[in-house]
Specification:
By secondary structure, the chain is of the alpha+beta class. The protein contains five helices and five strands; from the N terminus they run E-H-E-H-H-E-H-E-H-E.
């Protein structure tokens, strides 16, 4: 199976448990590894036979802005499940990075990965 990686996609998301967290959008970075068979697009060289990267990015930004989750885990799962379904992927790996609590936890990044 072939793979396309899109890294560092900036999205605005409502992720949080407290009322204050839910009200404040945060910038989240999303990495995706999209798995599908490239054979048809390699033969036709026609974008309709592949995955349009800009459509994936627009879809991710729309999902992030329209859905509120309590946790990064639920957010990453929602992104993975919906993107896999929308683009008919055989498999997807999603990484989500949030800087919201890095300073208070004294670490560089919080990054979570899911595979579907």
């Amino acid at each position: 199976m072939d793979k396309i990686s899109l890294s560092g996609i900036r999205v605005n998301a409502n992720i949080g448990i407290t009322d204050q967290e839910k009200m404040l959008e945060q910038e989240v970075y999303v990495d995706t590894h999209l798995y599908y068979d490239f054979k048809k697009i390699q033969q036709t060289d026609d974008l309709k036979d592949g995955v349009n990267y800009s459509e994936v990015i627009s879809f991710l930004r729309h999902l992030a802005s329209e859905n509120q989750t309590n946790t990064l885990e639920a957010f990453a799962n929602m992104i993975a499940v919906e993107t896999k379904k929308q683009f008919k992927l055989s498999k997807i790996k999603v990484g989500v990075e949030s800087a919201r609590f890095t300073e208070e936890l004294d670490l560089d990044e919080i990054k979570l990965y899911v595979k579907r």
